[in-house]
Write a structure and sequence with these properties.
seven-stranded mixed sheet; Arc Repressor Mutant, subunit A; three-stranded antiparallel sheet; 12 strands; single chain; alpha+beta
Length: 316
């Protein structure tokens, strides 16, 4: 009797490139994936599938080939939580070879091309925060596509329309203000986690800055030179009062969307905000609030947000 032995296919390592990578030919669709990683820093496989409009199976196949060919990375910091997360989607980042490709093909001017080193140095909290930002952005894209008559404006497109192009050096959306506190002037810079615009059916435009709060920063501190969410809110209010958004961005106004961890922290933020007094600013209505659980499974464009005065507000 003949006995046939079943030979299991060789499984490629998940977070180490194979010594013999599979046959690979770079396609234009692969370049689109690499561009998305350059734009967003870290992306899950599910994010990439949604952003490039491909099935998850097809996307995972190309991601595996791009990883083993050295164009993209799988940051090892996610190993901290991967065993407990089961089959959680893998997070990816741009690798050095991918950066060199974009320099050659697109003429991208990276300030630092050592992406693989930066990926190794990135810690779990930083990666998770970046992924939460993309979670929200992908939800925005999906919501706009479903509605059909709302157009989402990506931050790159917004920067291209700045009346003050010199302001786009460094982080183009950074706001820098001087704040007086207890008789001392403090210089504060605030950089939103995400910026986007909406063009409504009537042609009007609305602009938003987004803060994804992880609950690790104190809401308030007695020393304004130390980071706190109160300090961020004060900076946004002061920048709006100084009309920085008009001079630098060409916006009539904007709102700050804050997505935080739970209702208790949200209430603390609102109470702190209502105590702030910044002349000529919109005050508490400048901020719209939601919790992660409140947004979960909800369309962010039609979701009922709450402003700093606890009034129901919407984005569209």
């Amino acid at each position: 009797m003949d006995v046939q032995l079943a030979v299991a296919p060789t499984r490629r390592p998940r977070f180490r490139r194979a010594s013999q990578p599979p046959a690979f030919r770079l396609t234009n669709d692969d370049v689109v994936i690499i561009r998305q990683l350059a734009r967003h820093r870290f992306l899950r496989s599910t994010h990439i599938a949604a952003l490039v409009g491909r099935s998850l199976d097809r996307t995972n196949d190309r991601l595996s080939r791009l990883f083993h060919a050295g164009y993209i990375d799988r940051p090892r910091a996610q190993l901290d939580y991967y065993p407990t997360a089961g089959s959680a989607p893998i997070a990816y980042a741009l690798a050095d070879r991918g950066a060199r490709l974009l320099i050659q093909r697109d003429g991208v001017d990276f300030a630092n091309v050592e992406w693989s080193r930066k990926n190794r140095q990135a810690g779990r909290p930083f990666i998770e925060h970046q992924l939460e930002i993309v979670d929200f952005y992908v939800a925005l894209q999906h919501a706009a596509a479903v509605l059909g008559d709302i157009r989402l404006i990506h931050p790159d497109q917004m920067v291209a329309t700045f009346p003050d192009q010199s302001f786009s050096a460094g982080n183009p959306f950074a706001l820098r203000v001087k704040v007086s506190h207890q008789g001392t002037i403090h210089e504060i810079a605030v950089v939103p986690d995400l910026v986007f615009g909406l063009i409504l059916p009537d042609g009007s435009q609305r602009c938003f800055m987004v803060e994804i709060d992880c609950g690790t920063m104190p809401v308030i501190r007695s020393d304004i030179s130390q980071t706190s969410f109160e300090r961020k809110m004060r900076a946004y209010l002061t920048a709006h009062a100084a009309r920085q958004h008009e001079r630098h961005f060409g916006w009539k106004t904007f709102r700050v969307l804050t997505i935080t961890t739970d209702d208790h922290r949200l209430r603390s933020m609102k109470e702190t905000l209502r105590e702030l007094r910044v002349a000529h600013s919109p005050g508490a209505p400048l901020f719209y609030f939601a919790t992660r659980s409140g947004l979960c499974g909800s369309d962010p464009l039609t979701h009922t947000w709450r402003d700093g005065n606890d009034r129901a507000v919407g984005l569209i």
